[in-house]
From TrEMBL:
It comes from Colwellia asteriadis. Residues 198-365 form the Hflx-type G domain. HAMAP family: GTPase_HflX (MF_00900). Monomer. Associates with the 50S ribosomal subunit. It comes from the Bacteria. GTPase that associates with the 50S ribosomal subunit and may have a role during protein synthesis or ribosome biogenesis. Belongs to the TRAFAC class OBG-HflX-like GTPase superfamily. HflX GTPase family. The lineage of its organism: Bacteria, Pseudomonadati, Pseudomonadota, Gammaproteobacteria, Alteromonadales. Its main location: cytoplasm. This is GTPase HflX. The keyword Cytoplasm applies.
Length: 428
């Protein structure tokens, strides 16, 4: 149904500067988007306008310049660093005799290339269908009439109406399948809630280094690359933190300024992990000149998915790209960590992150001396998994004498679990 890019496509890029910050886009970021999509940028046609031209988005003279660049360089696609209306796309295609793709469609295509899981593919397709539904008229203007001919005579439905109906039916079908996936996610969240496992969610602007940090912390092998939207499908891992115990760490899709609303709506189910997290690790590329604007964009998306009230710990990443910056922890007036300066790529300052997380998540720590009989060897193994044993000895009868130190949350979990007899083993 969709025109998908093939690696090796060559494009003319179009970028305009507007005085209004709300409509301004970053050219460097746009070039990274184009590269992430596997497209070769032949040239950039840029200019300045106060407002978009209603017919071509760019002015008529600039539109002729784009058409000349397409002819001169032999490009097969024109990429706009802006969102175009269907009529603007149609008019530019008619003038340049070349396919025109706007920023929103480009981002959707990158997401389609990156999706790996069944849920991710469904979410991207739903976003694409929503975007396509407003552009169907472009492809069927020559068929805006009733179908005729043998086998095609019917109640008078036009080709355009048929396609709109099929599109609606497909979107309804995808939503039903996504609802089933969401039920499975809710069951997983309920299971973690019963186990009292807190969730930490990595959020941040795309290419800030979230997946690299995720891999360092969890020893996982999540795909990480210096490109936009390297991560699309959320990944969850269980880790053990000193003085905290077991927690769930979630790696999520990166945000970007003017993220297509259809994408935000489609990925709301996935981003529920962020909304219900106990703490957000907001990863910031501290070496990026536009870090302040990037932080604002992340905060905007967090508000849109109703996660702006979740506590945050700012991770100032990539300090190895700056001079005279040492890893450190910044604290508020109460001494609570609010920022950690580190480099995930260079593995610098990760120990400080663990310290900060322990302080932010740390609860009351309990100490107990246990006298565990030989029949409860499974409990001893569970305590070793929690890394909470400070001393261990055995007596002549085979009883294991343990001294443990662990968060009260983990202790209560053990008391409520299959090891509920643990309270009987406390030495008084």
């Amino acid at each position: 149904m969709f025109d998908r890019y093939q690696a090796g496509e060559q494009a003319v890029l179009v970028h305009l500067d507007f005085p209004d910050e709300s409509t301004r886009e970053d050219l460097t970021e746009f070039k990274m988007l184009v590269s992430s999509a596997g497209i070769e940028a032949l040239t950039v046609v840029s200019g300045k306008r106060n407002t978009p031209h209603p017919r071509f988005f760019v002015g008529s003279g600039k539109a002729d310049e784009v058409a000349e660049a397409v002819r001169l360089f032999g490009a097969n696609v024109i990429l706009f660093n802006h969102s175009l209306t269907p009529s603007q796309e149609k008019n530019m295609e008619a003038l340049c005799q070349c396919r025109v793709v706007d920023r929103t469609t480009l981002i959707l295509d990158i997401f389609a290339q990156r999706a790996r899981t069944h849920e991710g593919k469904l979410q991207v397709e739903l976003a694409q269908l929503r975007h396509l539904s407003s552009r169907l008229i472009r492809g069927w203007t020559h068929l805006e009439r009733q179908k005729g001919g043998i086998g095609l005579r019917g109640p008078g439905e036009t080709q355009l109406e048929t396609d709109r109906r099929l599109l609606r039916e497909r979107m309804i079908n995808i939503r039903k399948r996504l609802e089933k996936v969401e039920v499975q996610r809710q069951q997983g969240r309920r299971a973690r809630a019963r186990a009292e496992l807190p969730t930490l969610s990595l959020v941040g602007y795309t290419n800030a280094g979230k997946s690299t940090l995720f891999n360092v912390i969890t020893q996982a092998e999540v795909y990480a690359a210096d490109q936009l939207f390297a991560t699309l499908d959320p990944t969850l891992r269980r880790i053990s933190l000193p003085s905290v115990g077991r927690v769930i760490l979630a790696d999520t899709v990166g945000f970007i300024r003017h993220l297509p609303h259809d994408l935000v709506a489609a990925f709301k189910a996935t981003l529920t992990e962020t909304r219900e997290a106990e703490l957000l690790l907001h990863v910031v590329d501290i070496a990026d000149d536009r870090r302040t604007e990037n932080i604002e964009q992340v905060e905007y998306v967090l508000k849109e998915i109703e996660a702006d009230e979740v506590p945050q710990l700012i991770i100032c990443n990539k300090i190895d790209n700056l001079d005279d910056i040492e890893p450190r922890i910044d604290r508020d007036i109460d001494g609570m960590p609010i920022r950690v300066w580190l480099s995930a790529q260079a593995n610098i300052g990760i120990d400080l992150l663990f310290i900060a997380l322990a302080e932010r998540l740390g609860t009351h720590v309990v100490k107990h001396q246990l006298n565990i009989p030989p029949r409860a060897g499974k409990l001893r193994g569970e305590l070793y998994k929690l890394n909470c044993i400070t001393s261990e000895s055995y007596d002549e009868e085979g009883y294991c004498h343990l001294e443990v130190k662990l968060p009260s949350r983990e202790w209560q979990r053990l008391v409520k679990s299959e090891h509920s007899e643990i309270a009987e083993f406390i030495e008084h």
